[in-house]
Design goal:
Two copies of one chain form a homodimer. The first copy, chain A, is built from ten helices and one strand; from the N terminus they run αααααααααβα. The first copy, chain A, is mainly α. The termini of chain A are far apart. Chain A binds a DNA duplex through helix 3.
DNA sequence: CAGCGTATGGCACTGAGTGTCAGCGGTAAA
DNA sequence: TTTACCGCTGACACTCAGTGCCATACGCTG
């Protein structure tokens, strides 16, 4: 029933557009009653994002399960990858939906509210983990926003290429940027033979832009 | 007319709630025709955010005017402060609206779309400025999202305190965190007697978390 | 005073979303 | 087999947001 409604809806959305399709049109094509549509989807917009509710639940349970891990920033990055995986499971569907949401302002707004719920889930996780730090909630909000922005940047670039290319690699790269900006340590698996007692020395002119200094440190630490 | 509609709308929203107030109620109280409401506000939600369109235009012109400045991240932070200034101009109105949007999911969604337009304006500015860098658009999106998140974190904490306290200082602190994370250099006005040729030496154990290294550098550079 | 553009109000209409109830199916108990 | 019950579905009526259309009134200019 759900699937039949989604299929009918997308067929009509692609034929004549989202706003030119009424709920009556959808239920007529699917051969079900109008009332049943709103039983499965609380609004017309929801039929465009039929799997986000489940994905959000997955993310919540994932974060709850990894409550006592260290490296919380890495954890939320992994949580963000769950969303990418959902998109990658149905590339053609995801690309069609992307083109739809890009055109229709109402769908963009709805997508924003969905993304906001993901971001809140990540921020809430980080807030608990950062409870000790000064400015913990600030850092939690900012990092969550940065992770979501990086994820979406990579996701959209993958969607623009019609689902060609390696989505995971793109997202990994984008999240790597966020991790480096917000201080995730080196990977747990250290190459054998490398001594943890190694030191690096950075000499920086006072007044140099911090990001340039950070880039130097990254290079020195053989990151990226 | 606009003001009369906004006043009537907020009076009713506070009395009986947003969803329990119909547009007919508003226009009846304001003593105008129903059609006129939708001439001034394209939707019922718009009456809750009557000044954001102007503020968005202000931000756009501000960014356009500062197209050839250096330190684009600082520029974007200053642009975000324009939004705070708008909120601070009418503290009581802003606090009332905050309580309203916190309760009503529909208004939250609408606010998200407004915030999204601010974020896009910032990101677009940064994209142009970062056109040369590798991952320029990624950095632009992430930094814009971080700036908006920091701004909103401070703004909300100010709104929660009923508009008491120093909003500017709170936002300055929050944006300072973002600037330090994304590498804004020291302030242009350097204290006299301090030589720009000074150097700092950082010794770091290989494998140490990067954020700890960054924190050390910040301290060494007398930032924050 | 006449002409005109603009702002307003009234009216009817579409379409999303909701409450309610009746029907229809399967299932368990008598 | 019959009967009572429960969950799912469809049909109808209703509210309300938002739009198109047109008549009207106001202010300004000639």
């Amino acid at each position: 029933m759900r699937d039949a409604l989604v299929a009918a809806a997308f067929q009509l959305f692609l034929e004549r557009g989202y706003e030119q399709t009424t709920v009556d049109d959808i239920v007529a094509l699917a051969g079900v009653g109008r009332r049943s549509f709103f039983r499965y989807f609380p609004s017309k917009e929801d039929v465009v994002f039929p799997d986000h509710e489940r994905c959000l639940a997955d993310m919540t349970t994932y974060l709850a399960a990894s409550a006592d891990e260290d490296e919380p920033v890495r954890r939320v990055c992994d949580a963000a990858r769950l969303v990418l995986r959902m998109y990658a499971e149905n590339p053609t569907f995801s690309v069609q939906r992307y083109r739809l949401t890009k055109k229709v302002p109402g769908l963009r707004a709805y997508e924003l509210s969905v993304v906001w719920r993901y971001e809140r889930a990540l921020a809430e996780y980080l807030r608990v983990r950062f409870a000790g730090r000064p400015d913990g909630t600030l850092q939690a909000d900012v990092i969550a926003a940065a992770v979501v922005a990086a994820h979406n940047n990579a996701l959209r670039s993958w969607l623009r290429s019609d689902g060609q290319g390696d989505a995971s690699a793109t997202v990994d790269h984008a999240l790597g940027y966020v991790q480096s900006a917000f201080g995730v340590g080196v990977p747990a698996g250290r190459p054998v033979g490398e001594q943890p007692e190694d030191v690096v020395v950075v000499v920086s002119r006072r007044g140099a832009p911090l990001w340039r200094v950070v880039r130097e440190i990254e290079t020195a630490l053989d990151r990226d």
